[in-house]
Amino acid sequence: MTERLRLDNTNKLYNEALELIPGAILGIRRPYNFVQGEYPIFFDKAKGGRVIDVDGNEYIDMLCAYGPIIIGHREEEIDEAVIKQIRDKGFCFSLTQPCQNILAEKLRQLIPCCEKSVFVKTGSDATTAAVRIARAYTERTKIIRCGYHGWHDWCVEVKGGVPEKIYEDVLEIEYNNLQQLEELVQKIGKDTAAIVITPLGHPLANKVEAPNEGYLQGVKKIAEDNGIVLIFDEIRTGFRVSLGGAQELFGVTPHLATFGKAMANGYSISAVVGKQEIMDVLVEKVFLSSTFFPNSIAQIAALKTIEILERDNVLQVVSEKGRRFGQKIEQILQKTKIPAEFSGMPWMPFITFKSDPEKKYRTYRTEFYKYLIRNKVFLQPYHHGYIAYRHTVEDLNYTVATIQKAFQYLESMKI
Q1: What is the DSSP string of 80-100?
Q2: Cα–Cα distance measured from residue 266 to residue 74, given in angstroms and rounded to the nearest whole number
Q3: CB neighbours of residue 205 within 10 Å
Q4: In terms of CB atoms within 10 Å, which end of the chain has fewer, N or C?
Q5: pLDDT tens sequence across 326-344
Q6: What is the pLDDT of residues 230-266, one digit of tens each?
């Protein structure tokens, strides 16, 4: 195997950060979410489909900042639009700037369920606001959820610091298990405010799942038959699988939806969109406000990002690249003896290892991703990757070749 990367600067910064910040880095970016001692902990810069760490190691970035980078890093056209807004008009005011209306109208044109929208900053902001809206509209309490929806109290998976009474009315279901949902709604339906679901299943550390035939349609029918608000969490799928999100791709229109990540190619913005009657509880019944929600920088970035996505047919190009990439990975897996699976084609590629009683899959996973990072392919062992517009054919071919060599290496280990 290739030698371990030189990570002197990253380790120095990490040790400094341990004295300054609890855990040094927040959440999913901490070293234990990668392969400790093998992956960089600090990046320095990026351009296009590549990132460079603080030790000068350059990688093909297949994680794309966990999804926001749909076009590429440091897109000059987007950054210049933002710089012009800052220089010519400013961006942080006591009142709102007109670009809010322009962006809201654009979302209405593109997203099937969008009659009205509100802009916030993060995916957690958006899903939490959507749940509050649904509870206010239905005057009900219980939430049925499927998927990751953020770090806020009602949905965070690590419950430290969160009183049980705050999430006791939030009930989880499995993706693609319509019978389970039906039985749960029969039990608690009259007090269910919302079903919150990721239209494409992407559970932590497990393979990405497409909806079974009729699944999303079935979820919507159950919701409407029982007066429940159906919310699609499109934070990852929005402006990636389609300009109108997974709801457009799969032909199922929810009552509310949340968008973020790829919406502004890395600038911090998210949105709650939905039917006017439901969204209008925000007029008087529901309070939603923040000093920074109306800031125009991210709104300008979103407008320019969407303009480029439409003009350059970006999502079709991304899909075609992802499909070719995925087909090559599937060919590799058909030939290897290693018990691995590939999912997420064409938008969210993920290689996972089948669990076994002897826990060999853990060694396979560690050694596989160790091989990738040493050969300058940046992916995460517990999270699917992404395809960006600026990933070149050479980038993707190199990644495929490296993955093939990684499996050959695993076979040679005879674990």
Answers
A1: HHHHHHHHHT-S--SS--THH
A2: 9
A3: 13
A4: C
A5: 999 999 999 999 999 999 9
A6: 999 999 999 999 999 999 999 999 999 999 999 999 9
Task: Report whether 198 contacts 245 (CB < 8 A).
Answer: no
In this structure, is the dihedral angle defined by the CA atoms of residues 306, 240, 331 and 365, taken in order, positive or negative? positive
Q: What is the CA radius of gyration of the chain?
A: 22
Beta bridge partners of 324: none
- Give whole-number Cα distances, 306 to 17, 338, 357, in Å: 36, 41, 47
Element (H, E) at 234: strand 229-234
Residues of the chain with pLDDT under 50: none
- What Cα–Cα distance (Å) separates residue 401 from each residue in 147, 330, 332? 32, 13, 10
Sign of the dihedral through C-alpha 232, 251, 386, 354: positive
Tell me the residue type at 357: P
Model's pTM, two decimal places? Answer: 0.97
> What angle separates helix 215-225 from helix 178-188, to the nearest 10 degrees?
10
Please name every residue paired with 26 in a beta bridge, in sequence order, or none if there are none. none
Residues 6+ apart with CB under 8 A from 173: 144, 145, 146, 180, 181, 184
Pull the structure tokens for residue 204. 């932590």
